[in-house]
Protein 1
Amino acid sequence: MVTAKFRCTIRVVAALPCRAEDVRSPCGNYRMRLTLEDPTARIHAFVYGDDGEKFFDGYPSVVVLKRKLNKLLGVALSDDGKEIKDAPRNPPWVQCCLKSYYLDKNDKMGSRHYRIFDTKLCRLRNSTIVHGYIQLNSFHHIIAFAVV
């Protein structure tokens, strides 16, 4: 059951699966977990199904999907567009919409999860931005809510 919705300013510091080829299931559904960070904490948030379709603007090729993920994760690229090995990452600060929900009503805090929804990864000039479409609270509130 969804308990809260938030609009957050975050950075994406990790993605699982990490290969663009594995972000969709064999039948084509998006299924991934992102590690989100703000100045107060890190949490995991899922991108799944129709929310993934909106997030990635449909079903782009693996090459385009990899490029979008690399920009979102702040992967350093050379002038010819290749990843620079062992270079520090610098993920951009982006906005997204998160919903908080629990899986077990008898363990609401222990079974709490987060999911990105109503958010689209967009391209603006040479940078990538993420835009959530609803006005909600800031990310630090979701962390406080999760640990209270």
Note: Residues 2-147 form one domain.
Protein 2
Amino acid sequence: MSRLIINNSNGRLCNAIVKNLVQTKYTQNRNYCSLQKKQPSSQPSQLPPLPLKSSKPNMMEIVTHFFDKVKKKSFIIDNHLNDQSGLEQQLLNRDIKYNTENDKDNIQQIKLLDPLNNLGIRKGNEIFKVVENDLTNMTNSIMKTITDGVSANSTYSPAPLKKTHPILSSISSYYFELKGKRIRPTIVLLLAKALSPTVHGSQLKLAEVVEMIHTASLVHDDVIDEASTRRDVVSINHSYTNKLAILCGDYLLARASVVLSTIRNPDVTECMSTALAELVEGEFMQAKSNGAVSFDNYLQKTYLKTGSLITNSCRSAAILSGADSNIINISTEFGKNLGLAFQIIDDLLDYTGSAEECGKATSVDLTLGLATAPVLYATQEFPQLEKLIKRKFSEIGDVEEAKRLVALSKGIEKTRNLAIEYCNRAIQSLLKLPQSESRDLLITLSHTVVTRTK
């Protein structure tokens, strides 16, 4: 088939494929679920006509051209739900003022939205109490899924099919037994409660899928980063070996896919499959980083690695609640902005947090050659950092020098303000939803995302 297309020996086949391409469109935001059939719209197509060299075009050129155009149109930090043209660039270029040139203590901070007047009053523990039973059921179901498998006709509690290899079962259960933050399934469950009177079984399954995908990504991350600890314990790759850790991560993704299939909703399947693909793309983008000093690259990687899973899980939760398209889009926008805020704070904690608080090693991004927001902002004041970024902090003394210059710069403050900006936009989306206890707890959760120390 590939030779047939490349050699262009069948004009009718080419024309049929071209016609099919023209009849489809790529959504402006890839996390809104990949390719969709074109719907009637008053807006003209965002993609220009494909240039055809002859009546029998080379299909490889057509497909390449098509997806090149898609990529240019699909930068994931888009504004197509709200008229916020250029806001991201304004945030990135924001000049944070000092009362005196060297007085960082008097920095003009961006204020965190507090529509409920509950900052410093409501505690993060309240959030998890509301969904505590659901989280417990989710964890138990995941453990059963890992150990026994899941049948195609099972309800929320999987029916046993066969026993998993005991070593594979033990490794795969390792992180779930530690019960980490579980922020992602908590977001799914609270949003589900905010959009409908009861949480549906399909939404409980969605929370399970999200946590399994996230945990699998942690297992693979630890192999890639050669991490030695995770959640205050020895990481899986150090406890067992890289080979077994990789197989464990693959197994978790496979089991998550089986649970996802039992939800039996093609839109949700497409959303979560897109999130998984983009997670891998983000990892690949990071691994193949060429030391570019670019906020665009940083935000794109941040969205792909972290934001996409939260975005698509929020969208899926709204779809499963039976909400209309407006509520689905509001939920998606909330997830996108909260996901970005979460990862930006994570990058900040790599500079400001302690290993004891974070439950993992800190100051590792520079060691891995990664330029995140604090050092990118610091480059605006200390251009000599660009040289270090381009060589990925690979020479002796580079990491220490970068940390020193970040500490002297406004990079930490600017990074925190950027996270607060995205958090505020997430809260603004939540305020468009009907008032409820669960919605208000999501606002509190948004606060904890940017004020956390681990």
Note: Residues 1-107 have pLDDT under 50 and may be disordered.
